[in-house]
Amino acid sequence: MLVSYQWLADYIDLSDVTPEEVAEYLTRGGVEVDRLHRYHNGIEGVVVGEVLETSPHPEAEKLTVCQVDVGENTNQIICGANNVTKGQKVVVALPGTILPGEKNITETTIRGETSAGMICALDELGFSERMLAKSEQDKIVELPNDTVPGSDALEILGLNDVIMELDLTPNRPDCLNMLGVAYELSALLDRPIHLPENEHGVIRKNAADHITVEVTNGEDVPYYGAKVIDEVTVAPSPLWLQTRLMAAGIRPINNIVDITNYVLLEYGQPLHAFDYDRFGSDQIVTRRAKQNETIRTLDGQERTLFEQDVLITNGEEPVAMAGVMGGAFSEVQSNTRTVLLETAQFDALRVRQTSKEHGLRSEASQRFEKGLDFERIPEAAERAATLMEQITGGVVLKGTVESGELPAFEQEVYLNLGRLNVRLGTELGVYEVETILIRLGLEVTDIGEEWRVRIPSRRMDITIEEDLIEEVARLYGYDHIPTTLPTGARSAGALTDEQKRRRKIRRYLESTGMQEAITYSLTSAQKADEFLINDHDQGIRVLMPMSEEREVLRRSLIPHLLDATLHNLNRQLANVALFEVGTVFFPTADENKQPEERLHIGGTLSGQWYHYAWNGEEVPVDFYVVKGIVEGMLQQAGKEQKAKFRARKRDGMHPGRTADVIMDGEVVGFLGQLHPAIQEERGLAPTFVFELNAATVFTVNNEELRYQPLPRFPSIRRDMAVVADANIAAAEIESVISEAAGKWLEDIHLFDVYEGENIEEGKKSLAYSLLFLNRERTLKDEEIANIHEDIVAALKTRLGATLRH
Amino acid sequence: MIERLQELEAEGLAAVRASENKKSLEQVRVQFLGKKGAITEVLRGMGQLSKEERPTVGQKANEVRESIQTAIAEKTRVFEEEELEQRLEKEEIDVTLPGRPVQQGSTHPLTAVVEEIEDIFIGLGFSITEGPEVELDYFNFEMINLPPNHPARDMQDSFYISEDTLLRTQTSPVQARTLQKHQGKGPVRIICPGKVYRRDEDDATHSHQFMQIEGLYVDQNVRMSDLKGIFDTFVKQYFGEDREIRLRPSFFPFTEPSAEIDVTCGICAGEGCRICKFSGWIEVLGSGMVHPRVLELNGFDPEVYSGFAFGMGVERFAMLKYGIDDIRHFYTNDTRFLSQFQHL
Ligand SMILES: [Zn+2]
């Protein structure tokens, strides 16, 4: 909503309140002023001029040499407009003026004739050209005859006005019109409001003799009123009316249409003017549209209607889509003599649907959608009739032809002073609160402990006590509400165990050198099927996706992490190590139930894992780098013993460099190298990935952590190199050794893997370091020797492996 | 003989001075002090001396021996020091070369903001509650006072996946769920961080996916002044002690009265600048007293309980705090962007 400061000043005395102050009052009161617009940023020296003489330019056919009285002087000004005539009052920009668009006016000579100033058109003064009425295009402004040469023309044109752009919240449709804003400002400033006086003469003829109104769909059209104004002269509106409409963002058309728009802005009541003689009948009938019925609307478009559209018809043909747009043939034209004026209430939902389905949002439809102040419905028609009488020379026929009834608005809300003070934390007294309610224009009755407050129809948003508490609070000023801390029982806030663990895992992954990424949950159908930990039937699709890239909920974090990896690679950022902790989504049997949401931890790594540039030390990312990160993560959660890794072939993954992570017999994740074919297809470098179901890592081990005393006896270290078939997994060898070694084996680790010279073809050598410890006593050498023999025997019988000598 | 010894001392000391390295010094030692050395030789001739002369000569011989020994020892130390010096000189390295890098990752700025805000509210006695990202219409809209056909819940604005389920458009459903879980008994003090989704075209200031933190405080006799107090504390902790807040009346379907909370602009300290549109204030969150209908819908008696609720955009906080100009950066994961938040 665009609000003119000068227009507001018609209703409230603003002589000592600047536009900036008005904006501040409104904003702090809850009606936010987004910005202030000024047409004339510092334009000075634009005055009224009277054209005293005109003569054709001796050297240029299209130019006129004018002698113009500009107050103290008479200037010779050359003018190119074809509507300049002697005796006209015009707008003159004197030399020294800077017009919008950095246009400098200087005294010049045009083909031998001096020109001291410029006679202006509206668009040269800052109005946008597309806002101008057709009648004002390509011509100089003609000012009213009673203007005085030399006086400030900006003021006469309203160009010294300031326009406030309101950003309204949906609960305040009352501020979608000038009177509503005026009421608001009157409450905020505590100043009286002066409403327009609508008194027009009436002639003897009855409107009811000229038109009838029949509503066949009362729910859609609770009220319909029609007035008839005769003997109008359609012409361009006076300048003041045109500039006010333009300031509000509405283009002037002609005086009749402009008046309906003016009243729309002023009262918030949409009106429609039909040409009575072109209406096609003397009856107004409202109904729903028929199948395939069409209408040619004001904008010249032929529209096919839907059956739920509400229509105004002449009994046969539609003349308007109710509340949305009028029809073409009954439009007011330059030779219209009699106007049929509609003021009505249409069902908000119907208007909303029709305007949406036809893509027609207008100033009128918006207001119907938000609900009207129905006490103003008849009043607005009186206002328009008054203006038509004054501006178009029309005569108003007696009465309004009506159908339906406007209910009396009876809304009462109770307000209790005690509750108000408890809710706000204030100590307001009876007088303070009552004064505020009265300033708001509410009718207040004191009934002992509380007030009975009668709500006017313009403030239908006030329905419960809390609404009144807000009204009092905002007028009292939110700033004046004290600042306190809650007095209720205290409680310590804390993270849950899972939340702590999630933070810990994030910190762990960051400590390895990985960077946390966050990617989108919605992905393409293709990506939603990639890199799944376990097979599932399908992803969950949104009903109205915005694009193919964002139509299915992700089931793996890897696809978008790969996208991010590629993004970096394309920017010469080759070393990428990203992880994400995020939700993935799986369908449940009932599509109206929520899907299953699981938290996953995923990662992608590419390029150098370790790079010590100046001494050439480089460790490219490989399978074991990723495995180390995953193992560390399991260790952080105390799950390293439970988790097993098993080779597995997976779609999209390198067949020989991929492993499942298995816990309690279930596949809970995987890791490995991207399949070289996929890597090439996507333009990636060798890339390694992992993804785990976070539940496996985040669920807390319920066993309490107990300290283990440090050993008091020495431990004994023994190394052994095992030669086994190359295809036996290291994990298997280790588990055979561990089992055979028994309870005194404190630690085992692999320190060398070797294949090649000195080792039989098809075999490999793995060297282990074993640490033995007995916590009760010192171990004897022969005990260790016995264990060693047991291990050798087990390796031989179970794996056919021998010791390397 | 005394004279001879005096000569030897002079010769020996000269030889020590003249020796150029440990090896020549050793030769000097053997020459003068060795078993077959010059001094020993002199001493051998002691037999010819008289009883009276012997102690004097013996003493002199010891003096000379000690003198040369001391000289050798000193000279040895000099040689050793020189050697050490030379070795250390060879060991010199360029200390300005870069050190061995230690792997360092980074926290995503949105996570950093969420965790920082969580910690402040934990300190104020709140706990962190989370909920599903795909929600029932019932919790996402109905239970927070947005009945069907409410203009604020246009199908066009949300990602529905079926008639009843959608990607949540705010984290408020977590509040409704938590209230219902409490079965009408307060206090409830929670904040709910999480991802939310709206059908917005992605551009510099819009994202179809973003993060929100909403909060709820319900107890007996909670006042609007408490809302001011909590946020005054929060804002001072998060943005800085010198920041002030101001409340402006606003509208949300789930609160009444409602307020936008502004914070004094950090760029201009409230003087007015381009960032704050010359108002000196920056809007940071929406809040208000919980609408009695919301309490009622979720099983709380509005005659007994009251509360306040609030919501803030995590991206907006991060953009304000770190001066980030494009919301898409958060989801592109450019490592040059992520690395800038390493110290968080
Ligand atoms: Zn600022």
From TrEMBL, chain A:
Entry EC no(s): 6.1.1.20
The protein's name in its UniProt record: Phenylalanine--tRNA ligase beta subunit
Localization terms from the record: Cytoplasm
Keywords for this protein: Aminoacyl-tRNA synthetase, ATP-binding, Cytoplasm, Ligase, Magnesium, Metal-binding, Nucleotide-binding, Protein biosynthesis, RNA-binding, tRNA-binding
GO cellular component, one term: phenylalanine-tRNA ligase complex
SMART domains: B3_4, B5, FDX-ACB
Organism expressing this protein natively: Geomicrobium halophilum
Residues where Mg(2+) binds: D461, D467, E470, E471
PROSITE patterns reported in the protein's UniProt record: B5 (PS51483), FDX_ACB (PS51447), TRBD (PS50886)
UniProtKB/TrEMBL annotation, chain B:
Catalytic activity: tRNA(Phe) + L-phenylalanine + ATP = L-phenylalanyl-tRNA(Phe) + AMP + diphosphate + H(+)
Cofactor binding note of this UniProt entry: Binds 2 magnesium ions per tetramer.
The EC number(s) this enzyme carries: 6.1.1.20
Keyword Ligase attached: yes
Subcellular location: Cytoplasm
CDD domains: PheRS_alpha_core
Keywords noted in UniProt: Aminoacyl-tRNA synthetase, ATP-binding, Cytoplasm, Ligase, Magnesium, Metal-binding, Nucleotide-binding, Protein biosynthesis
Any GO BP: phenylalanyl-tRNA aminoacylation
Domain of life: Bacteria
Binding site for Mg(2+): E256
An example Gene Ontology molecular-function term: catalytic activity, acting on a protein
Cofactor list: Mg(2+)
Domain Aminoacyl-transfer RNA synthetases class-II family profile: from-to ranges: 111-320
UniProt KW ATP-binding keyword: yes
GO-annotated cellular components: cytoplasm
InterPro entries, per the entry: aa-tRNA-synth_II, aa-tRNA-synth_II/BPL/LPL, Phe-tRNA-synth_IIc_asu, Phe-tRNA_ligase_II_N, Phe_tRNA_ligase_alpha1_bac, Phenylalanyl-tRNA_Synthase, tRNA-bd_arm
Any Pfam family matching the protein: Phe_tRNA-synt_N
Family assignment from sequence similarity: Belongs to the class-II aminoacyl-tRNA synthetase family. Phe-tRNA synthetase alpha subunit type 1 subfamily.
NCBIfam families hit by this protein: pheS
HAMAP family listed in its UniProt record: Phe_tRNA_synth_alpha1
PANTHER family: PHENYLALANINE--TRNA LIGASE, MITOCHONDRIAL (PTHR11538:SF41), PHENYLALANYL-TRNA SYNTHETASE (PTHR11538)
Oligomeric form and interacting partners: Tetramer of two alpha and two beta subunits.
Descriptive protein name: Phenylalanine--tRNA ligase alpha subunit
